[in-house]
Amino acid sequence: MSKFKQPTLIQSLIPIVVLVGLLAINVLQVYGDGALDGANQLALLLAATVAGFIGIYNGFDFEKIIEGITKSINSALSAIIILLLIGALAGTWLLSGVVPAMIYYGLDILNPTIFLFASCIICAIVSLATGSSWSTVATVGIALLGIGKALGIDEAIIAGAIISGAYFGDKMSPLSDTTNLAPAMAGTDLITHIKYMTLTTVPTILITLIIFLIIGFFYDAGNQVSQVDTLQLAISSKFNITPLLFIVPLVVIGLILFKIPAIPSLFFGSLLGGAFAIIFQPELINSLYTGSNGFVSSYKAVVNAMTTDTAIVTENELVNELLTSGGMKGMLNTIWLIICAMIFGGVMEVTGMLKRITKSIIGLAKTDGSLIATTTASCVVFNVTASDQYLAIVVPGKMFAEEFKERNLHPKVLSRTLEDSGTVTSALVPWNTCGAYHSGVLGVATGDYFMYCFFNLISPIMTIIFGYFNIKIARLNDNKLKK
Question: N or C end of the chain: smaller count of CB under 10 Å?
Fold first, then answer.
């Protein structure tokens, strides 16, 4: 490395500035929510190109840069495979009725007298089942917003309850892309990451639920639950809803508890979902593939559910939006974004720019608590400046991974910090893709609802508190003297 010039801080910041500028143009001026369909991916590649030119100017060989990109993408390969399996699992769990059953029974707990509390729980259940805060908000969230407004509850508070629950599920679900991305960036595994997140996430959601329960006492909810009945009727008109369908997620949870790796667990879960679809939903399968014999229609239904688009049509538009899945195909856009982000991160890392930026920031973090706080702040800043939650996880993850290891901190401490701050705060920024999406879908301005997203607001504070007070901070070597 002696023949290479180390980049200056200004040189290292140039690709970041280019990236932030392009993302701002994409999200705020040109594409809006559609920036994730390709514009942001191209922005990452262009910023990586700028970083590459600076690296070459400093004496880096092009082949060396390509090696760095390859290494960076390789580090995310397991997460990419898991994302594909998540798409397959989501498809068969939809076709089998597993996800519809979760939604159906989740709606049963909606008690008008504790509407906000129940709404948060329902969205948490649905988001846990689907692994997506976006689909939860766009489907059940819209229905709950309509019911809440009819009950006279302020729409900003309803939106806060919906988003809080949706992001709890998104953050804790093994089906979520960010939940898979964070441990991949930090260097730990999915199951370890989720288990460790419960330490900060469970207290946060409990505080959130208590707040919504208290707020709910100030509203006279009444008994207007006809929209819930309509949703349940639409679901039951297409699916045979039975508690036996919960065997599928329970088996997958069991595999995880027995420490079976995520990839075979998810693959088995998707196949089991396909088997349950054939057993419990034969009428639905026959209606989707008329003109084929039983074996052909069942085979096509399961394969298509795993690989491509599946849509169950009812008489209810909201339910129709919920009962859709893109299978593996639906994950390709996210995978595309991750690959482009890893290209950018790879160039920044191999040319020394990431290390140069990190060195400047880490100089301010003298203790483990301040390092966790600095990482949290970096994630929030990237959500504000880069307008994308994936970048708010990828870039800080790359920046701080080595420093966490050098300080004897387990990678799961970093992965939890990335999720506690990078994932959840994305919904609070109006020009972030997440904030823009939720505002557009619910019809409530981000500036109105963000103060009621208690889960999203408390999560980064909770992880900082755990860091400064050294609460359950895992070490790589527990016998090593703590700093």
Answer: N
How many C-beta neighbours within 10 Å does residue 25 have?
A: 14
- Please report, as a single letter, which amino acid is at residue 134: W
Stronger pLDDT, 5 or 92, i.e. the higher one: 92
Q: State in Å, rounded, how far the first CA of the chain is from the last one.
A: 31
Cα angle vertex 221, ends 216, 227, to 5°? 120
DSSP strand pairing (324-325 vs 310-311): antiparallel
Output the pTM of the full model.
Answer: 0.70
Any residues with CB less than 8 A from the CB of 138 and at least 6 apart, and which? Answer: 321, 441
Nearest to 230 by CA among 135, 312, 144: 144
CA dihedral 450, 397, 378, 6 (to 10 degrees): -150
Locate 92 and state its tokens: 């068969």
Q: What stretches of 25-132 show up as alpha helix (H) in DSSP?
A: 39-57, 62-75, 77-96, 98-108, 115-130
Q: What integer is the mean pLDDT of 457-470?
A: 95
Q: Both tokens of residue 222?
A: 């009444």
CB 422 within 8 A of CB 389: yes
**Does residue 483 carry a pLDDT above 60?**
no
Listed in sequence order, the residues at least 6 apart from 61 whose beta carbon sits closer than 8 Å to its beta carbon are none
112-116, 184-188, 324-328: which range is least confident on average?
Answer: 112-116
Helix (H) or strand (E) holding 423: none
